[in-house]
Amino acid sequence: MSARWFRVCRRDELKDGSARSITILGKPYAVFSISGDVFGLDAACRHMRANLAAGKIQGNFVTCFMHDWKYDIRSGKCLTMEGADAPTRETKIENGDVYISVEWPEDF
After folding, report:
1. 97: which of 11, 37, 78, 82 lies 20 to 30 Å off by Cα?
2. What pLDDT score was predicted for residue 106?
């Protein structure tokens, strides 16, 4: 597999303390704006697969809206269940757009 970049939104649409979600090949991903930085995660909560972009953001953490599982946005570390971390994704800002890097099948 190789990585591909996907546009999520305009940078000015991603306000500090907010998130945006994108679905690629049926899988949800999220970008979060925290203190001016942009972070990317696989967006499916490891508990019941709810989209973390819809969760409550407080500081560097997002809490899943379904069952209150908590994740560190910067590292993907799950603070609720050991080993249930959300994989992180590279992000970049190019020409005012926010992009997320996603693994892409070679034969696609």
Report:
1. 78
2. 75
